[in-house]
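Allow me, if you will, to draw on your knowledge of protein folds for a short while. The matter concerns a single protein, recorded as an amino acid sequence and a row of backbone structure tokens. Kindly check, if you would, that the fold set down in the tokens agrees with what the sequence suggests. You will find the record immediately after this paragraph.
***
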Amino acid sequence: MEWILIFLVGILAGTLGSLLGLGGGIIVVPALLFLGTIEFMDISPQVAVGTSLLSIIATGMASTIAYVKKGLVDLKSGFIFFIGSGPGGIVGAYANGYLHTSSFSLYFGLFILFISFVIFIRDKLPPIKPSGIMFTYIDMDGRQHEYGYQLVVALSISFVVGFLSGLFGIGGGALMVPVMLLFFRFPVHVAVATSMFMILLSSITSSITHYYLGNIEWLLVILLVPGAWIGANLGSYINTKLMPQTIMWILRIFLLVLGLRLIYEGILGY
């Protein structure tokens, strides 16, 4: 029964990760930590993160292929963000070794709750006019969107995103997508698609680091990856069928509930 559950976790993580540009680690890491508490197998936070990052590669690859076919991935921006997130992920992977289960859940939950709050107040924040490297995107309705960013700012933020990805095993999208929406003014669908491309690249570097640190449980990977691949294709399909505001509300509610749950577990010392 536990093996089927892990496969289903992979599908759910792949679907939500691809749909919202989060990568899927937000589902996988808590799920693996929970399985560790019921003595399914010995799953430390380090193993949960390392295993999660490896499964995120499948989610990122399937999502990127699907989004590239639809012309939604900004490849140039994705590579620029990776220049910062790649090294950040390696540093975060090493920093992960200093976290214990209870503190991990608490800090992870606080981080997710903060991101949820920022997304909730997004519409009330004054619009930020992008500057620096500028791009133009024309959506399916023929509307033109302009977005952009300063190179130094983008590299600094993506380094932090990569660090948190390697630290928490979340793929980085939980922070990068809001940043792209709030500060760089990316269209929602382009932000999600480009985030998944960056997540694919940064997860590879972070996974290599966790592999050398011995933080990957291969049996779990074998069960998670097929589900993540299926879910990623499903999520990318659903994404293109939903209105941008619908995606935003799903993201807001999902992060809020998850953040509160993790904080609760961290306070109780699970």
